Amino acid sequence: PCLFKMILFLIATSLTFITESRNFLQLPDIDCSKTPTFLVLLVTSSHGQNKARMAIRQTWGKHRLVAGNRIVTYFLLGTTMNQNDQTGIIAESQKYRDIIQKDFIDTYYNLTLKTMMGIEWVHKFCHQSRFVMKTDSDMFVNIFYLTELLLRKNRSTGFFTGFLKMNELPIRKINSKWYVSKDEYPGSTYPPFCSGTGYVFSTDVASQIYNISESVPFIKLEDVFIGLCLAKLKINLEELHSEQTFFSDRVEFSLCLFKKIVTCHYVQPYELLIYWNALERSMDEKCPDV
Ligand SMILES: *[C@@H]1O[C@H](CO)[C@@H](O)[C@H](O)[C@H]1NC(C)=O
Ligand SMILES: *[C@@H]1O[C@H](CO)[C@@H](O)[C@H](O)[C@H]1NC(C)=O
Ligand SMILES: *[C@@H]1O[C@H](CO)[C@@H](O)[C@H](O)[C@H]1NC(C)=O
């Protein structure tokens, strides 16, 4: 009877896995139930950005322990009509085991689907982790400082932080990249949200967003969509630190500055390698207090 129960259990768990893997074309190689994970970094990426993915894998996205806390990085991708790109991604996924992919066309205006795929993956495969960060492939992320601040903050549930946008208005200029029609979003203001360049939340929030997302009107701006979910869930945005640490713009590199920021934007792969090497080489050097 014991063996029988065990077989039933095995069948049940593999069935769960099969149901949950449904629709995922590529999955990363991790068993979060067996590997305690502190922070999962989800990076939106597209097929042509191999250089950026390689640079991230060698820098802030390298899987490592920071003060004993495991940090892992996965790339979010959709599909493309280009067969070469598509086979390239399958090979890359088999080599690095760090790609999450579903079957939707990979375009800028499908970013909400891409982000929600990441949230779904966390909900189904890695709800045991403590924090999740969603960021982009042209970002610098100081995971050391982020870990230090998250540990200092010591929050476990209902936490959401990043570059806060508390009073944004929909852009109605038709030729803007962020144009949103009144049909798509009738409201005159957006709810508070965090810039999509980098936001961090406690993992329970992923399941809550996943759960409520079906009943939230779709908008192609992924960060606004997450803001709409948070408003419905009554989860407030919080600052991670009294100083600004998330930058949604470019920040000129200086070692002492980059030690005390979490994100900055518009970083080329070659710059990322240079900045990161400088940062790692100077880990023990002190900077003047600001
Ligand atoms: C988003 O993906 C879906 C599913 O593949 C596709 O039908 C749709 O055209 C895409 N939307 C855009 C704006 O590219
Ligand atoms: C973190 O918070 C928990 C309660 O949520 C508390 O038990 C623990 O002592 C706190 N740790 C630190 C380092 O403040
Ligand atoms: C999902 O939503 C249902 C109904 O709104 C609620 O009862 C349930 O607790 C929610 N689950 C999570 C994980 O938030």
From TrEMBL:
One of its GO terms (molecular function) is N-acetyl-beta-D-glucosaminide beta-(1,3)-galactosyltransferase activity. It is a single-pass type II membrane protein. Its EC number is 2.4.1.-. Pathway: Protein modification; protein glycosylation. GO terms for cellular component: endoplasmic reticulum; Golgi membrane. The keyword Heme does not apply. It catalyses: a globoside Gb4Cer (d18:1(4E)) + UDP-alpha-D-galactose = a globoside GalGb4Cer (d18:1(4E)) + UDP + H(+). It is an enzyme of class 2 (transferase). Coiled coil: none annotated. It comes from the Eukaryota. GO terms for biological process: lipid metabolic process; protein O-linked glycosylation; response to bacterium. InterPro entries: Glyco_trans_31. Belongs to the glycosyltransferase 31 family. This is Hexosyltransferase. It comes from Gopherus evgoodei (Goodes thornscrub tortoise). The lineage of its organism: Eukaryota, Metazoa, Chordata, Craniata, Vertebrata.
